[in-house]
Amino acid sequence: MDPRTGEVIARVAEGDSEDIDRAVAAARRAFDEGPWPRMTAYERCRVLLRFADLIEQHADEIAALETWDNGKTLAQSAGAEVPMLARCMRYYAGWADKIHGLVVPADGAHHAQVLHEPVGVAGQIIPWNFPLLMFAWKVGPALACGNAVVLKTAEQTPLSALYVASLLHEAGLPDGVLNVVSGFGPTAGAALCSHMGVDKLAFTGSTGTGQIVLELAARSNLKPVTLELGGKSPFIVMDDADVDQAVELAHHAVFFNQGQCCCSGSRTFVHERVYDEFVEKSKARAMKRVVGDPFRNGVEQGPQIDEEQFKKILRYVQSGVDSGATLLAGGDRAGNRGFYIQPTVFADAKDDMKIAREEIFGPVQTILKFSGVEEVIRRANASQYGLAAGVFTRSLDAANTLSRALRVGTVWVNCYDVFDAGIPFGGYKMSGVGREKGVYALRNYLQTKAVVTPIRDAAWL
Length: 461
Known about the structure:
- It is built from 15 helices and 18 strands.
- The protein is of the alpha/beta class.
- It folds into two domains: about 15-230 and about 430-450, Aldehyde Dehydrogenase, Chain A, domain 1 (3-Layer(aba) Sandwich), CATH 3.40.605.10; about 235-415, Aldehyde Dehydrogenase, Chain A, domain 2 (3-Layer(aba) Sandwich).
């Protein structure tokens, strides 16, 4: 469905549990009998590098599909996400021949090795907000390690992942190594999570669904699980901040990708000394934000993903009004067609309000006042989530104090949403289990084996 209009743009075959069975069987054959895990690491590297080349050759088509599928701006798809997809695949191509074991000193006349081997068949479930990036973050490390993959796309956004998967096949990936199934969570997703033929799961999505994924994995074959889940990330503006710069960065932290970002800095904590100025300038910035067709030049914000998410966000907005927060900007749909929402800003919010506690996943900024460092640390950490945080300050001492005290997986200081393939990403608490990206992602797709042998001069040989 095109989120700009609500009209059907393509029909994709719905994968169900039987399709998952077939996909897992194909992946199992490819892993147990096929060439991929038996290739040299250098050969796997070359396939992934060819894939990155094809991504760049087809960048315009991929970006258009991502925007058409998801509603994010073409400027974001073409200028950031497609290049990041290619860079991430090159990063993991470079790791393919650098997965080394260890030699461990052993007591007595023995030689001990530690080997890192591919885990086998990896089941992966990606979300609708960043289909291309989540494809890269999951498929890249899994393939670099020599695994086979069954990937389930989000039912809202199957198009871009299906297309780039075809390019990976064109790059020389053997049959059965990557199997993409487009289906719904309760059917295809549940079948993948509970499948006895899957050796590893990786899921990105909501915390509630992540708990179900973990339970299904445990009830089946105790397959290990990596979870990248929800957040309610604090963005902290100290009293020494350049207010204009802080307003712009906080605006980006909230409204990037239509606010549909797990690490959205949606709790904006502002020191009382600069609070009033910050609030007024944040209101003005939100009212200037350009909302419209994501294919048009100059548009900053496209539509939300679908009607369900659109209505959910507006319910949160009403909750904010009902609970006594001050609605400064937005608060309603934008236009009369599609799933567009006005950039919305609340001030005078309290920590116990739903808009300050729960993940909205939309273009809604909630501004809260604080008076001291210890106070804001306590309040920022008083959340079930711990995915990310932002800190805006001129003080190195304040930056260091806050960075160490915040119970989150990523702290961005005087920046936000900086995603490099080598930087690990994941959360504390109910924001997830494990890490993606960097060398940490490789560990998700490797088994560790110890091999101990006697040395030749052992007395009994």
